[in-house]
Amino acid sequence: MAIKPCKECGSQISDKAESCPQCGAKQPKKTSKLALIFAGLVLLAILIGILGDNKTSQGQVGQNPTQAAEQPPQTQNWQYNTSKDEMRGIESKFAATVSTNTVNFDFPYNGGSKLGLTLRKRGSDIDVMISVTKGQFLCGIRSCEAAFKFDDGTVQSITMVEPDSHSPDLLFVAYDKTENKIINQLKSSKKLIIEVPFYQEGTKQFTFDVSGLEWD
Predict the structure, then answer these.
(1) pTM for this model (two decimals)
(2) Which secondary-structure segment (H or E) carries 36?
C-alpha cells in the first residue's frame, strides 16, 4: 500500500482508497500502459475482423447455397489475452469486446466511433473499463454516470471515474462491488447497452453482443 495526495484537497490517503476520508472526493482508478495498449489493440483487432468478415460475406455472394451453408462464418464476441509481470510473478487476464453499432461524431472525431468494453483481473484486483476508438468522454474530476442495460432489464446508473493518467478516451467502473455485479450480469446476458456522455456530443448509446463470456 502506498500513500498519495487527494486530487481534490491534498490530504494524504491510501492509493487503495476509493474516496478521500477528508473531503469525500472519489479517487481516479490506477491503470497501466499495458491496459491502455491492450484495450487499443483489441479494438483494432476486432474492427479488422469485422471488415474481414464483411469482405468474406461479399465474396460468397453468388455461391451455391449448399456451399455457403457448409461454411458458416465464425464469430467470437470476446477476445482474450494474458500477460505476466515477471518481476512480481503476477498474471493479468483480459477479456474484451466491441460495440456492434457505430456512432458518428463531428470533426475531428468524424468517421465512426465504436465503444470497447474490457475486463481485467490482476491478482485479486478486478477492473471493468470502457474505451472509445475516437472521441472524448465527459467525466469530471470526481466521477460521472453511465447507464447500463442488460437484455430487457432495468436501466442501471453506473458511477465511472477517469484513470490516473486522465486519458479522455478511457473510463473505469468506480466501485469493486459494482464491477463484480457487472461481470456476473455479463455471464448470464446476451445483450448490453451502454449510454455514456461525450464532450460536446451529449450522451450516446452503444450496443454489445456479450453472450459467451468465459471468465472465472
Answers:
(1) 0.70
(2) helix 33-59
Q: Does residue 117 form part of some domain?
A: yes
Alpha-carbon distance of 216 to 34, in angstroms, equals 21
Residue range(s) defining the domain that contains residue 171: 31-56+76-209
Same domain for 88 and 157? yes
Residues 137 and 182 in one domain: yes
Total structural domains within the chain? 2
The set of cell numbers assigned to 78 is 470476446
State pLDDT tens for residues 13-24. Answer: 665 566 677 776
Spatial separation of the C-alpha atoms in residues 82 and 71, rounded to whole Å: 30
Residue 20's alpha-carbon distances to 119, 126, 133, in angstroms, are 25, 21, 32
Q: Which helix (H) or strand (E) element contains residue 172?
A: strand 170-173
Which residues fall within 8 angstroms of residue 125, CB to CB, at 6 or more apart? none
pLDDT of amino acid 3:
59
Say if residue 41 is in the same domain as residue 140.
Answer: yes
